[in-house]
Fold each of these.
Amino acid sequence: MKVRAYAAGGGGETSTAEVFVVRTNTDPDPTANFTFTTTQSGSTWNAAFTSTSTDDVPPIPTQTWSFAGPFATWPGGSGPTFAATGLTPGNHPVKLFVKDATNRTDEITRTVALPGTPPTPTWAPPTRTTVSPTESDFTWNGVPGADGYEVETFYRNDQHQYVNPTTEYVAQPSSAGGATMTSTVHNNEHTCSVQNSCFRTHVRAYFVIDGVTYASAWSGDIWWGL
Ligand SMILES: [Ca+2]
């Protein structure tokens, strides 16, 4: 960078010099890493995490654990180990953030894959919002650990049977947080002559571990018309 120097009594620019700024913090960065074990407990899981992070000056003073996926409400923790209980089946990203004594940082996220049946989605207000004569938005509470959702809509035929389902797939968001999911459902442009009972829609959550798909039970049904 360049610095300009001025005479104390005024008189304008007197000289220009190159100044080289040298980073004085040459402390090596820490490297975040961890291992974990899981134990099934009824329909849920417990997980025990151990930091294997390294730094030139151990121990690393700041080690913070958090669930990095959407909809999870499980508490995080701090320190070289972390235990989580009551985890539902699914793919749960867990993040370890580390910071050494000179504020150098690193982080790593690993996915804890827990086989089993995911929680069943529940509808959330506003459960259904009419978008157009052939579309409605449906809203449900997101399921932590899901990879996505399957929204199925049946059409009521002249024999009062719900048939010919159409399926819409909704991907799970990748970022942490969130509260609800929304899908725009198309009614296949069937005309509707029966108020509030032309269609039947339900949703389920799913995830995949090692090529095996695990799906939740279907949510409650919503019967709807135009
Ligand atoms: Ca260091």
Note: The chain has two domains: 34-114, 123-224.
Amino acid sequence: MACSTSSSLVSRMFIMSTLLVAALAGNFFQDFDITWGDGRGKILNNGQLLTLSLDKASGSGFQSKKEYLFGKIDMQLKLVPGNSAGTVTAYYLSSQGPTHDEIDFEFLGNLSGDPYILHTNVFSQGKGNREQQFYLWFDPTADFHTYSILWNPQRIIFSVDGTPIREFKNSESLGVPFPKNQPMRIYSSLWNADDWATRGGLVKTDWTHAPFTASYRNFASASKNSGWFSQQLDSTSQGRMKWVQKNYMIYNYCADSKRFPQGLPQECATTNL
Ligand SMILES: *[C@@H]1O[C@H](CO)[C@@H](O)[C@H](O)[C@H]1NC(C)=O
């Protein structure tokens, strides 16, 4: 009797701890809606995996159920493998309306063996034009890698596998608007952009390789008491970001003086480079 009671207690505790772990790990059914693509976006494995696909007729996309006003958001992505030229996988935070804020990761596909470009941008109050682009130091199609956005009132930090690649600081003191009033949703989509994505539009999508598929897992959004709300880059992280920017950055709007003949945007004065 005592024995069966304690074993049912143990199994109940086991079930509860399993539920708790599942809640912390996130579940795509619980956290996201597939919003378009007519069945090309799928949630699989009891909510642990999400896939988007693209064929000649359509791409697909999803968005978070929740809105976030600041956040530390991690997602693991495995990008379209093989010949992904012409395809773009966008993964971003955005608010709505003409003066929206937005924090973007976009992955521009390529021919087999040629490097993806990771394109980043930040919009505040409807204004973007803050592109930075990178190659990656690994093949992003061979396995899942973690892409993170830390957004607090002082800074936005883009990271890849825990290595910061870009920091956009709050430069309101210089008159530059910073996203801090408009809640954002998480969005992702896989679509055809062969008019510009690969080598500036020179390489077109090869539809004989369709459908193209990108996969997502291990979504996590940190709770507010975990320190990220006031987090900044320590000197080790700054060193790693410098390493990425020195070796893998291929475009930086803050270094493009031809594009801004009137002078570089104000916030470029505070960009760590
Ligand atoms: C694709 O590969 C070419 C050749 O290596 C490279 O110039 C280009 O930056 C790569 N990425 C994209 C998205 O075009």
Note: Helices lie at 2-25, 28-31, 235-247.
